[in-house]
Structure formats: C-alpha cells, structure tokens
Amino acid sequence: MEQDDCYQSVTETKYDCLLFDVDDTLYPMSSGISTECTKNIREYMISKLGVEEEKVPEMCAELYKDYGTTMAGLRAVGYDFDYDEYHSFVHGRLPYDWLKNDHTLMNLLQTVPIRKVIFSNGNDAHVAEVLSRLGLEDCFESMICFETLNPSKTSEQPENSDELPKTPILCKPLENSFIQAFKIAGINPQKTLFFDDSIRNLQTAKSVGLHTVWVGSSHKTDGVDYSLESLHNMKEAFPELWEGAVDKGDVPYAEKAAIEAVVALSCQLRLKLSGLYQNEKDKRLKHYKKPYFMVWFTDFAGFSGST
Ligand SMILES: [Mg+2]
Predict the structure, then answer these.
(1) Span 40-83, pLDDT tens digits
(2) At what angle do helices 83-90 and 33-47 cross, to 10 degrees?
(3) Contacting residues for 243 by C-beta, under 8 A, at least 6 apart
(4) Domains of the chain, residue spans
(5) Are strands 115-119 and 142-144 parallel, antiparallel or unpaired?
(6) Class of domain 14-162+174-242
(7) Alpha-carbon gap, residue 218 to 241, rounded angstroms
(8) What is the DSSP letter of 69?
(9) Ligand 1 centroid to 38 CA: how many Å?
(10) Distance 247 CA to ligand 1 centre (A)
(11) pLDDT digits (tens, 9 = 90+) for 93-149
C-alpha cells in the first residue's frame, strides 16, 4: 500500500484542475457587491413580482437557504419570469466600478501551471464583467455559468411530489449542477481543488468527490478540507501547485507583457534606423552602429529575463 502511494506521488500530480466560484471568492465580501446584489433582488421581488415589501427579507432568506439562490427558490414556489430580465435587473445594475484590477491574484493565476475553470451561479454577462474589472479575463480556460446549465430563458415548472417544491433551475449547491459541470468541462473531481465562499456549495462539492477550499474563512467544518482567508494566500497554503511553474519573478504578468511590448517596438525602430544608416552608407554613422546594438541587447535581456 505504501509503495503504491509512493509510486502515485512520483508519477502523478495531486490536482489537474482548479475550480473557482466568482462572487465573494475571486474578490472579498467586503467589496460591498453582494450587499448591492441583495438589494436588487429585493427590489425585483417587490417591483416585478408584486411581493409585499415587509415579507421580502424573510422570504429571501428562506428561499436562499432552501435552494441555494433566491432566483431558484422563486421559481420553485411558483413565480414565473424571464431569466435574462431577472439577471439584467439584479446584476446589470451593480456598481462594478467598486472592483479594481487585482494584480496579485492575476499573477498567481497566470503562474500556477494547472488548468483553471470558473463555476458560478451568476449569468455570463455578470461573470465576464467581474473578471474584466478584476483583470482576470485571460486567466481561465473555460466557464460554467447560469446559462451553461440553464440554456432556455424560462423552464417548465416541475411537478411537486414532496413537501418542498422542486426548482426547475439547475445551480449550486444542487448535486446535479456539479455532475453536469464535470461533464461539460471534462473535470475529474478526485483531481480538482474547488474554491468557494459558500459552505453549502462546499458540502455538496465534497460529497461528489471534489477537494474543497472555504474562501474567506479561517475555520474548518464538515465538507471543508482547507480554509483560506483570501486567494492572495494561495501560494503559501498550496505551494505544491506551483511545482514546475516557470519563474516569472515578482513582476506582475500584465506589466511584464507591457514592458516586453515596448522593448519589441524599440527593437523594430532601431533595426529600421540601422537600415537607414546602411542605405546612406554614412561611414561616420556606421562607426557608432555596433556599440548601439550592444546596448540594445543588454537592455532587452535585462527587461525580459529569459528570452
Ligand atoms: Mg460565492
């Protein structure tokens, strides 16, 4: 048994996929975005669905507790509405400018040599906006969002056969949402580390075989393998994920790319200038060409590291 374990650790990596929730996971709850989202949901229930204002807070809490999202709960108890309209009212009006580029997280995600996938209950447009604001739009191989699991804009109300009505919406923490996500993204849960801020999502995730990380907490409980106050601490908590990574130094990826672009332009300009010198056959200028190129190569190597 010990020999088998040893052999496995040498020949295989423990994880081949990192699966991430978005809201309150890629950015902290302290951003205030979630509070604004809750306000919008309550306003939608009052203004669009005609729910009495004084009943909304308790109803919201109950539906969220029973169904994972208020939206899934509203459909379960019989409210019918267009999903796109709901998302544009609830998410489309969020103060996205509160989210800023996160260079630290971008650098971590860009350097970890493991495929990364998004799994969010949010709609496509919301997830894309959040990733763009955080500067993380190029960090993930694929995304499982609301529309991925719920392709039609409305869905049939299922027949209710037990005391708790079923929802036609497929979303976390329903077990089937994870099973479908695995199929769509080609995920092996036994080799995947899942990051989420919702304990209920993590508990289902654990039951279907994922390794789980509770983000935004320092506590551990049932269904949680690891806890992490912030994704900024990923490398300290899971240094093994970076084994085999190419060292890009401390320069954030975007800044590095910008520097390399400037150096490349400089290179082109100087090559053109050198061509002009040759055409003019100005021996005096040619006299300075050689040391000029030596300086450029020194600059290029210094800026871009291993080239
Ligand atoms: Mg979340």
Answers:
(1) 999 999 999 999 999 999 999 999 988 989 999 999 999 999 99
(2) 130
(3) 13
(4) 14-162+174-242, 253-304
(5) parallel
(6) alpha beta
(7) 20
(8) S
(9) 13
(10) 31
(11) 999 999 999 999 999 999 999 999 999 999 999 999 999 999 999 999 999 999 999
